[in-house]
Specification:
CATH superfamily of the largest domain: Spore Coat Polysaccharide Biosynthesis Protein SpsA, Chain A
Structural class: alpha/beta
Order of helices and strands: EHEHEHEHEHEHHEHHHEEE
CATH class of the largest domain: Alpha Beta
Distance between the termini: 43 Å
Radius of gyration: 25 Å
Oligomer: single chain
Strand order of the largest sheet: 7-5-6-4-1-2-3-8
CATH topology of the largest domain: Spore Coat Polysaccharide Biosynthesis Protein SpsA, Chain A
Number of helices: 10
Strand content: 15-25%
Shape: elongated
Length: about 325
């Protein structure tokens, strides 16, 4: 039988870190879009936008409180500190599952095309529990970012990750999918690689990326590098298998060189061998150091997971006119 979902209560999750330059415009654009969706009967009238403050150091939190106090359409979830973009997205989704039928995550700068929400909802109504947002192109990226992103996704697929090429943290998840996501307890989060492993019926929506209108990107090179490492080490142990293969090949090469050395010695050839020894030592030393660093990364992940520390600490939640099961919360 064809599966169809009912018109959902939708929560739009917007993670924020030092976004004071764009918040005023973002709140207006979000309200306008969600209002149009309500009038068109695509979402219910109790749908909301939920901003997640990830320990911002500027006026972001104060502005969010002002926005939420003026209009109950907006909600605010604020962290006690800075826990990262992935944690902010997760916290927003897990809060949304208590009130909504579906949640969509989108960056607060709205570079991701908010008009694509209609297509997300169409896929949801057709029975999809997860809808992935994938970029049409990377024309708005610089040459270096475009090159590294393309190389990264190819490497991810080589290492066994199920992350979609050019996918973003712009996605829709149904309440069922969100409840399933809540069962995952790891602290090293890479949602783009984790969610595809859940196995729910899914679809893809392609969207355009606009140039940022104000402020600066908060995703520094260091943060992108950390996310890339989390994506590789959280999704697969294939790098360790590759290290084993590399070690086996290195041993074979060493055996071949030993055989050649013995043959040369038996023939009485005087081989100086300094250059060869130096090259071999450097190669083996490099392989060993790289191998140890990769293994150490996995050991470090295991260590952090064994601590069972919270992935984030919520300082405050403002959600007006919502209910938690049978208890009505008025804040």
């Amino acid at each position: 039988m064809e599966k169809r979902n009912q018109i959902p209560t939708l929560y739009l999750i917007l993670p924020c870190y030092n976004e004071e330059a764009v918040l005023e415009k973002t709140s207006l654009v979000v309200k306008d879009k969600m209002t149009r969706l309500m009038k068109e009967g695509k979402i219910t009238n109790v749908s909301k936008a939920l901003f997640v403050n990830d320990g911002s150091r500027d006026a972001t939190l104060r502005m969010l409180y002002d926005i939420a106090q003026k209009d109950s359409f907006y909600g605010v979830l604020s962290f006690a500190g800075n826990y990262g973009h992935q944690s902010a997205i997760l916290a927003g989704m897990l809060e949304a599952r208590l009130h909504a039928d579906a949640a969509v995550t989108i960056d607060a700068d709205l570079q991701q095309d908010i008009e694509a929400l209609d297509r997300f909802l169409e896929c949801y109504m057709d029975g999809c529990d997860v809808v992935y947002g994938v970029r049409n192109d990377r024309d708005t990226d610089g040459f270096f970012k475009k090159l590294t992103a393309t190389t990264y996704y190819k490497l991810m697929h080589l290492l066994g990750s199920g992350a979609l090429t050019n996918s973003a943290d712009y996605r829709l998840m149904s309440k069922k999918a969100l409840n399933a996501l809540a069962e995952y307890g790891e602290s090293s989060l890479f949602l783009r690689g984790l969610i595809p492993t859940m196995g729910f019926e899914s679809d893809i929506v392609y969207f355009d990326v606009k140039a940022r209108e104000a402020g600066e990107s908060k995703y520094t090179f260091k943060k992108m590098l950390n996310l890339a490492m989390d994506g590789i080490t959280s999704s697969s142990i294939r790098p360790i298998h590759m290290i084993g293969g590399l070690g086996f090949i290195t041993v074979l090469a060493a055996l071949v060189m030993i055989i050649f050395s013995i043959v040369d010695w038996a023939r009485g050839n005087a081989v100086q061998g300094y250059t060869t020894s130096l090259i071999v030592t450097l190669i083996l030393g490099g392989v060993i150091l790289v191998s140890l660093s990769v293994i150490g990364e996995y050991v470090g992940k295991t260590y952090m997971e064994a601590k069972h520390r919270p992935r984030y600490i919520i300082d405050n939640v403002i959600l007006r006119d919502v209910s938690y099961e049978d208890n009505t919360i008025e804040e």
